[in-house]
Amino acid sequence: MTDYQILRIEFGTPEYDEAVALRYDILRKPLGMQYNPEDLAKEYDQYHLAYYDRSGRMVGYLNLTPISDHEVKMRQVAVAADVQGKGIGSTLVAASEAFATEHGFQKITLHARETAVHFYERIGYQTIGERFEEVGIPHFKMEKS
Hints:
Layout: E1 4-9, H1 14-28, H2 37-41, E2 47-53, E3 58-66, E4 71-79, H3 88-102, E5 107-113, H4 117-122, E6 126-134, E7 137-144
Parallel strand pairs: 4-5
Antiparallel strand pairs: 1-2, 2-3, 3-4, 5-7, 6-7
């Protein structure tokens, strides 16, 4: 038995609601922000991948949003605070890359928070362009073929 499972979850399910709660705790709450229901509603046709630990707890999540037939954007990468630094993020990203390849995508792009750029560089992503502000904090566009 493995120590984890990475599963595709469906929009509008209890698992999706759990993912939104994890994303809120990690990505929005520290910035004093909420999720806009209209923005969440746009996620109905996107890919949602969740990382479950041995106990069945969702401890990681990421979203893949198709941009074109060949490109997908990785968004909303979140790992529960108490398990960060244990390889969950890199395992989840690797699984998303395999998922993207299986679905015919040839490139993944993302907007990395400045604090996460080194993480993505370590796993093969390249910075494209200059630093910019998003949700009030510095980001860099990154990509990987």
